[in-house]
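Worked Example 4.2. Consider the chain below.
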Amino acid sequence: MNYTIIIQQSAQKELKKLPYTELKKIQKLILSLAKNPFPKGSLKLEGTNEKLYRVRKGDYRIIYTVDHHIVTITILKIAHRRDVYRF
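Applying the procedure from the previous section yields the following C-alpha cells:
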C-alpha cells in the first residue's frame, strides 16, 4: 500500500533552499517514504504531543507525521541537523 505524501508549504520553501545534490537525495528519500513510512534509521521524536518521526539523509533531517487512517504522510520540516529541532 502506497501512502500519499503531503509536503507543507514551509517544507517546500526549505526544499528550494537546499543545494542541488542534497535536493536530489532528499527527494528520493521522500518518495521512498510512500512505500515504507518507517525506513531503517527512522525514529519517533519524544517530548511532543504529536507523533512525529524523523529520518536523516546526510546532514539533513526530515520531520514528518504518519496517518494510517487516511494513508498519508505529512512532511513538516526539512532542515540541516543544527536547525531542524527548533520549532
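The mean pLDDT is 90. Residues 6 and 74 are 5 Å apart (CA to CA). Compare this with Example 4.1 before moving on.
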